[in-house]
Specification:
The complex is a heterodimer of chains A (123) and B (112). Chain A contains no helices and eleven strands. Chain A is mainly β and 123 residues long. In chain A, the strands form two sheets. In chain A, strands 2, 4, 5, 6, 9, 10 and 11 form a seven-stranded mixed sheet that branches. A four-stranded antiparallel sheet of chain A has the order 1-3-8-7, with no helix packed on it. With 112 residues, chain B is an all-beta fold. Chain B has no helices and eleven strands. In chain B, strand 7 and strand 8 form a beta hairpin. The N and C termini of chain B lie far apart (36 Å). Classes of the chains: A mainly beta (123), B mainly beta (112). Chains A and B meet through strand 5 of A and strand 4, strand 5, strand 9 and strand 10 of B.
Chain lengths: 123, 112
């Protein structure tokens, strides 16, 4: 079955860390760039980060650069998002998504999305 | 960062009638190979987003042919030839030409 399944969300205090995971199945994971996209409650979509097929290139949104780290383990078909120094405005549903090309940038065609995992940053 | 704008932000539609959404970028999304790095996504109520159009005009697998994308450079349009009730939701454009990638604010489509 072709799918992405996120996990790792939860409630965390400001300033703390959290690591999200996204397990892929049903496609050749190592052949695609992978993204994290988030959606704050009642808001639109915000692109967060992308990693190239082999992990050699990473790019980040300005709002998370220096605090979040995207990584992947192709042997485990898993994408990660390490989130440090979390803030209240990081509260959102976090989606992982598969891009069409292998590159980090440019990118296009997020053609497979997970169901999302919710992160709530609150004291 | 490239700024994406969409219009309208709200679009009441009548089933069977056509509809269109405009998306503009603050910088050109056209590269030297002739590719426009502009995608369209639809997020239906309570669901994850789904890809409709990529590279400006290429319809994603399984997307009905009533959806079409056009445009180049900084101006793009998503057209629905005949709106159906299942097309309601929020439509987003996104640029992938230059990281950090950016989404438009979204256009909410609802039935009149």
């Amino acid at each position: 079955q072709v799918q992405l399944v996120e996990s790792g969300g939860g409630v965390v205090q400001p300033g703390r860390s959290l690591r999200l995971s996204c397990e892929a199945s049903g496609f050749t994971f190592r052949s695609h760039g992978m993204h994290w996209v988030r959606q704050a409650p009642g808001k639109g979509l915000e692109w967060v980060a992308v990693i190239s097929y082999d992990g050699s290139n990473e790019y980040y949104a300005s709002s998370v650069k220096g605090r979040f780290t995207i990584s992947r383990d192709n042997s485990k078909k898993t994408l990660y998002l390490q989130m440090d120094t979390l803030r209240a405005d990081d509260t959102a549903v976090y989606y992982c998504a598969k891009g069409i090309p292998i590159s980090g940038s440019p990118q296009y065609g997020m053609d497979l999305w997970g169901q999302g995992t919710t992160v709530t940053v609150s004291s | 960062d490239i700024v994406m704008t969409q219009s309208p932000l709200s679009l009441p539609v009548t089933p069977g009638e056509p509809a269109s959404i405009s998306c503009r970028s603050s910088q050109s999304l056209l590269d030297s190979n002739g590719f426009n790095y502009l995608d369209w996504y639809l997020q239906k109520p309570g669901q994850s987003p789904q890809l409709l159009i990529y590279l400006g005009s290429k319809r994603a697998s399984g997307v009905p042919d009533r959806f079409s994308g056009s445009g180049s450079g900084t101006d793009f349009t998503l057209r629905l030839s005949r709106v159906e009730a299942e097309d309601v939701g929020v439509y987003f454009c996104m640029q992938g030409a230059q990281a950090p990638f950016t989404f438009g604010p979204g256009t909410k489509v609802e039935i009149k």
